[in-house]
Amino acid sequence: MKMKTLIKTVSREHPEEEVIEEAAQILRAGGLVAFPTETVYGLGGDALNPLSSRKIYAAKGRPSDNPLIVHIADMEYLPPIVREIPEKARILAERFWPGPLTMIFRKTERIPDETSGGLSTVAVRMPSDPVAAALIRASGGYVAAPSANTSGRPSTTRASHVTEDLMGRIDMILDGGDADIGLESTIVDCTEPVPVILRPGYISRGMLEEAVGEVRIDPGILDENAGRNVRPKAPGMRYRHYAPKAPVTIVEGAPEDVVRTISRLTAEAARKGLKTGVLAAEETASRYRADLVCPLGSLSDEDAIAQHLFAALRDFDSEGCDVIFSEAFETPRIGAAIMNRLLKAAGHRTVPAEEGTEPERV
Ligand code: TXA
Ligand code: MG
What we know:
The chain is an alpha/beta fold. The protein contains 11 helices and 16 strands. The longest helix has 18 residues, at about 300-320. It starts with 5 loop residues before the first strand and ends in a 10-residue tail after the last strand. The site of magnesium ion has 4 residues, from loops. Magnesium ion binds next to loops.
């Protein structure tokens, strides 16, 4: 399945009309186009065309029972594809759309089973990115788009990641530079009286609750239930994901203890001849000796940490690291989303830092 993949640069603020039209034409004809959004890059196909959705699964190597998110650009495109718009969903849409929020609704027959993975519900998002919005409008209004990565690998936050994974497998890549947020959208199931978070993201539980009152978290995605028989409701959250080739271990504890423990573990691995990688905050990164140290950003800048996480996980692969050790990033607002992705990358392998006697000084 080798095809020619066109790569076109596009301005994020003022998408060039002719570029968008060329991409939209591909989508209307049933082809696939990767494009930037404010969260991560998406791999787009016509959501109403079952053949396009099949092509998306094939290009990603994704199991076809894992449904796709349908992207719209304007509110009037929602009613034709959903059975009802619950009041709380209406409020959330008003507050957070366009933006990094996906909501689950009961679907109408306009959405083919191929797109919804055979479910009776459909996930819908209205992205705020101007390129995404222009492309959706020009292509007919409904773009199915999973993250533009090979199934199992970290999501793509820049066009070069998409090239790495999908070159020769899709028709076109729109290169609009780096994604702003760097983590996929928050997914909220709005088919229940109390909305349920199926995947944490930039829009936190607190932000949602401020808008609609109580919001639950799907027990299947909680770290304490990992390895137990609690299935996440979003099919995609059940699969191994985000994992670099090398095993990742997260070290948790007081900052000084974490630095000391990771340093000891890296030195031990290096003595065995292994190539080592460390994922750290900017504040502590310079304290490590490893083959590749990836500083994600300052602990006081959680947006930066989120934005750089997936690129860093990919860097360990390109560098050929054999083992990776990571600090934990329990930041106040998006820490839940960051740790959700990192724990999946680590296969939930965490170890407590060895406690030291020195006073803390970070
Ligand atoms: O930020 C994002 O959401 C990005 C950009 C491109 O918009 N898209 C994205 O799509 O992350 P994807 O396919 O990589 O992740 C979609 C997740 C999967 O875990 C899937 O199982 C879940 O959404 N999902 C889709 N439809 C669903 C449904 N009807 N019920 C429950 N989960 C659903
Ligand atoms: Mg994905």
